[in-house]
Amino acid sequence: MKSLVRKIKSVFGLKEASVAEALPFDLLFAHFREVLDSKNRAMEVIADMSDKLGGGYLFDITYVHNAYSELSAAMQDSLQLFEKLTRSRYAQLGDIFARIDRQIRLLVEGISPVGGDQVISYADITWDMARSVGGKSSGLAELKNYAKTNIPDGFAITTKAFDDFMEHNHLGGLIQAAADNSTSPGALSGIRDAIMKGEMPPTLSAAIDSALLKLRTRSARAGDQVFLAVRSSAEEEDNEYSFAGQFETVLNVPLTRKTVEEAYREVVASLYTPKAAAYQKSAGYDIGNAKMAVACLVMVDAMASGVAYSSDPSADGDTLIINATWGLGTSIVEGQTDADLYRIKKHPEFSVITKKIGNKSSMVTANAGGGTITVSVPDELVEQSSLADNQVHDVAEQAMLIEQYFRKPVDIEWAIDKEGAVVILQARPLRVIRNSDVRVTPPHSIVSGLKRLDQLLRNPGTVAQKGVVAGRVFILRRADELDSFPKGAILVARNDSSEFIRALPYASAIITDIGTPTSHMSSVCREFRVPTLVNTGDATKIFRQGQEITVVIEDDEDPQIYDGIIRELLQGGGTSGSMDDIFEFRRKRYILRYISPLNLIDPLMDNFRPDGCRTMHDILRFIHEKSVVELVDKARYDNDMVKRHAAIKLDLPVPIGIVVIDIGGGLTRDGNSDSVSIEQITSVPLLEIVRGITYPGVWRSEVTSLRVSDFLSSMMRMPDITSDSGDHVVYNIAVASKEYVNLSLRLGYHFNMIDCYCSENAKNNHIYFRFVGGATDMTKRSRRVQLLSDILLELGFNVNTKGDLIIGRLANLPQRDMEITLNQLGRLIGYTRQLDAQLLDDTKIEKYVRNFLEGNYEG
Amino acid sequence: MSRIMVIDDEKIVGDMSRMSLEQEGYEVETFLNAEPALARLKEEQFDIVITDYKMKGMDGMEVLRTIKTMYPEIKVIMITAFANLDTAIEALRGDVHDFFPKPVKIKELKASIKRALQKE
């Protein structure tokens, strides 16, 4: 029995040990508020930095220094307070902060990472090694180690090795001379010769030897004969700039130190070809500072290979394309073959839209002794699809998974191995030109005759990200409609939500009724440069579903929205993207990568842990979420609190039996009276919930007919709870202050908890709604979960369900909207109290949801 | 076409100014320090000089004084990361056209340039 009790408690998140040793609630609550304040300060600095480094300001290094010092201080405050709040339960978070901080400081100071290993196995590459192993290796390692994608075995030769090689051969002067001499062909050729004749530093040779030995051992176990592909992985390669085809790749290199070193020199030397030098120059790179890391990957003995774009750049974004050919993919990337082309619908199930089979008369294949050869394709295969239907599906699925992982369209190189499995050889962001890059000041002659929709809005709106775009309005009523978000549409929603990140790669713009420019969503919109306008008051009511509009957010004070697609506004003017062509700008902006993106999106996902944090924003998100959890757990299970504080009974017209523990400003009491009326509640959130519960018609008082099986199933599930009504009072407690309430209810056979902070500062506000249990069998209880979930979604919550447990979260609403929502939650508590017994079939769910939303509580 | 000179010892400021002002149709030249910039003024006519306040070698106030003495028709816009009331007053006394703390909102800088050119 004891273990069952423990199990039940664990379902409710009760931590037996932690309660006894934890802080008193009022102190904990004070810490909680301090954490929120410091977290908000940090979020404001992040918003400011994203804005100032966004291309609209002239800034210098002093700004970057000062802003980051301010952020770092606010982060350290947050961490310290969070540590106090959680009693160092997440001590690892401090280490994660230190790692991210180090990366940022290196960038702010403009210094390359020094030290570290010369050679690193892919399995050992972590997210913060991007600058050491280069873009290509870092992307592949990320896929292998975090996204669990199938990539070839291998290792990276780092920029540290590059530095050592250059120093060992005294090449620094030669390179500097070439850089100063406008990269003349003669000087460049001198550098390449010197590199090809260069001697490997003994430590580097030893490191390569050791990596090869490990590869040999692993492959011998698998019984394979192994060759390597030795490829470039320059510092920014595959990130901001693609460098596609600029550098050397040496394929099918035999696994000996001599051959690998030879290939290494060739790849390093390709940094200094005239073509690569010109490309770097046009991208704003200083060839004197460029560094080349190298990727060494086990060759895939490919049946077929090719390239896939997870979003067709020339289509609506709902199509992905695959190019494929027999053997190695070299001929495709070099545009030398008539490859097969598949255009595939992303949803549902990757149906093929068009298939064009190329005339593949030749193919590139691995040569037995090393290197590659071009051979004729057997006649019967020339015009046969190089991918079977299931392989088309598998490649498309991989492309989609990688796009979802990186949350942006990607360009991948893949191969099908002898077993028919897809292996990913490269993944990099696909550069898609977005309309939002266009900036114009609309001339009066164009706009004078147009219908300004923004003037119909209640508020002018707050600009979170500027840009000019046009598209169709997609009004999001419920969070789950994001799954059907049309590509290229303008997302219009009631409140902002970090969930929208899923739609960001496809959204042309985002407009919300309510929201703040420092919210998680706003900050991510800036990162993705999706034009975003929040806090318009009633955009969801003013715009029509599917309406075509043009959004011109050029100015913080005067964002403009026009009816229809106004092409003249989208054309002309320069592009803000052009700032990206400035190397120094890009380099400074690069630090935002460690600051503003949000990877920790869903608290129920596996990566919602300290070591899942990659950015300052992630750390703040983690701190906020876990601080709320801390408060929720403590308020819910701290029985000790009842003994220490006077519990005041709430006199209500419905028999719900709530006692209130006032931790400051929650009630006004007459003398020593042990009960209070509704009018004496001064806790803003508690008052609204109670108003909702007692709203006329909401409290269903008729006797519910429980069937015998329902009763038995409840007995089976909750023996310790149903047997003793003496515990009852403990489960109907409200811990309240002026701005906070944690209300724990046991009503009949289910448990309901609402934790809410509701203040004038929208950024601090949250509602956490938790519901579990019920007296009836699982089917009926699941129906109630479905009903609750439907209603919560309509109220704007993010909802997660697991069996009969349902958790709803909502944050950052202004106080007035919080109050309206809390009132609705109060009504929901009364309304659904015993509803599960009446949910006899699925069709009833819709009826009760509709009744509730229409305010018909008695139907 | 109006010509604008930008003097700032940080390359990024010159690069970003050039990028945004050329889009407006101005001709832009950038310098990392004051001496070669002033030498260039002898060869070429400029309408506006945007200069940083604090630089290695000759600083922004000196640039302002030199220009106002030798080329009084050129409008000078001062930008600085170390903005305070004293520097602003000092610049205004030196007949600066406008004074911006960094980071400078490019839109405001453009508006200021427009005003400077209109006055002519």
How many strand units of chain A?
Answer: 30
Largest sheet of chain B: 5 strands, parallel
- Largest sheet: spatial strand order of chain A: 24-22-23-25-26-27-28-30-29
Strand order of the largest sheet of chain B: 2-1-3-4-5
CATH topology of chain B: Rossmann fold
Distance between the termini of chain B: 14 Å
The count of DSSP E runs of length 2 or more, i.e. the number of strands of chain B, is 6
What is the molecular shape of chain B? globular
Mean pLDDT rating of chain B:
90
Q: Tell me what portion of residues of chain B adopts beta-strand conformation.
A: 15-25%
Q: Going by CATH, what is the homologous superfamily of chain B?
A: Response regulator
Number of domains of chain B: 1
| Content-based structural category of chain B | alpha/beta
Annotation keywords:
heterodimer, A: 859 residues, alpha+beta, Dna Ligase, domain 1, D-amino Acid Aminotransferase, Chain A, domain 1, 5 domains, nine-stranded mixed β-sheet, seven-stranded mixed β-sheet, 28 helices, 30 strands, elongated, B: 120 residues, alpha/beta, Rossmann fold, five-stranded parallel β-sheet, 6 strands
Structural account:
- The complex is a heterodimer of chains A (859) and B (120).
- Chain A contains 28 helices and 30 strands.
- By secondary structure, chain A is of the alpha+beta class.
- Chain A folds into five domains: 2-89 and 596-614, no CATH class; 119-298, 2-Layer Sandwich (Dna Ligase, domain 1); 304-429, ATP-grasp fold, B domain (D-amino Acid Aminotransferase, Chain A, domain 1, 2-Layer Sandwich), CATH 3.30.470; 439-574, Phosphohistidine domain (Glucose Oxidase, domain 1), CATH 3.50.30; 646-853, no CATH class.
- The model of chain A is unreliable at 1-20, 433-440, 572-577 and 703-730 (pLDDT under 50).
- A five-stranded parallel beta sheet of chain B has the order 2-1-3-4-5, with helices on both faces.
- The mean pLDDT of chain B is 90.
- With 120 residues, chain B is of the alpha/beta class.
- In chain B, strand 3 (48-52), helix 3 and strand 4 (75-80) form a beta-alpha-beta unit.
- Chain B is globular.
- Chain B has one domain (3-119): Rossmann fold (3-Layer(aba) Sandwich).
- Chain B has helices spanning 11-22, 34-43, 60-70, 85-93, 106-119; strands at residues 3-7, 27-31, 48-52, 75-80, 98-101, 104-105.
- In chain B, 47% of the residues lie in helices and 22% in strands.
- Classes of the chains: A alpha+beta (859), B alpha/beta (120).
- At the A-B interface, strand 1, helix 4 and helix 20 of A face helix 1, strand 6 and helix 5 of B.
